[in-house]
């Protein structure tokens, strides 16, 4: 039996054993599959299509890339756990701090602020029981702008910008008297400039004593008839009347009564050279005696 196949294009030998293919391959060499392709060598799927060679055992192609869905889900679950733990912590805090009973206010004493060491005065409640001389507790207190304003002391008004009375030594004084026909009107009485208690009209803030001479009702004496000529040259008769006054000393700044000056006469023993009179009543009242006023001031302020 011949193992050779018939020549290409020839007739097969009738005495030959039919050809059954090539002999079996020994172990270790690759065989051929049904298509005549080696298991370890490249084959052809279709005529003319080349397949890249695969050496040795074939490796599976890498699986398709998976999305990070598991990572996103894990992070979301972790964030939810953190938030839940935070909320649980807040709830526990409130549960520890809460109290079923009604809250009771607790008073705590604050520590006093340290006193300054630079000597700066600090505001605080006054501990003095004495009244403040700078601001008398009197709704009628006023500030003087002129010397004549100090006459308001005789009506009960302290003078805020007057000097404080600290005793007779060195005190300055003014004197005022009211009019018998209009007792609320006060006029200044002259004091000799040689007196130590004299004060100029421009120095009214240095005055600490005001002497008030108040007309005594019903003290009028017998009128004296005095002849004068008015502004038109017509002759007129004026009844010149004497009277009395009571003299009282007051502290200018507080309005407090500090002494009595006694009675001061207003004599009308002779007719004055010049006179002011009421044209309706044709009366004129004599002024308090200036010598008596000064004598009373000398005694009080000595």
Features:
single chain, 302 residues, 3-stranded mixed beta sheet, elongated, 5-stranded mixed beta sheet, alpha/beta
Q: Catalogue the unreliable spans.
A: 24-50, 55-59, 90-112, 124-133
Please report which band the strand proportion falls in: under 5%, 5-15%, 15-25%, 25-35%, 35-45% or over 45%.
15-25%
Cα distance, first to last residue? 182 Å
**What is the N-to-C order of secondary-structure elements (H for helix, E for strand)?**
HEEEEEEEEH
Number of contiguous helices? 2
Tell me, rounded to a whole number, the average pLDDT: 75
What summary fits the major beta sheet?
5 strands, mixed
Total beta-strand segments = 8
Topology:
Blueprint: H1 69-97, E1 173-179, E2 182-188, E3 209-215, E4 224-229, E5 235-241, E6 243-251, E7 257-266, E8 283-285, H2 290-300
Parallel strand pairs: 1-3, 5-8
Antiparallel strand pairs: 1-2, 3-6, 4-5, 6-7
Provide a quick synopsis of the model:
This protein has 302 residues and is α/β, with parallel strands linked by helices.
Notes on the protein architecture:
It is a single chain. β1 and β2 form a beta hairpin. The termini are far apart. By secondary structure, this protein is α/β, with parallel strands linked by helices. Mean pLDDT is 75; it is low at 24-50, 55-59, 90-112 and 124-133. It has a domain at 147-216 and 244-265 and 289-300. Helices cover 13% and strands 19% of the residues. The strands form two sheets. A five-stranded mixed sheet has the order 2-1-3-6-7, covered by helices on one side. A three-stranded mixed sheet has the order 4-5-8, with no helix packed on it.
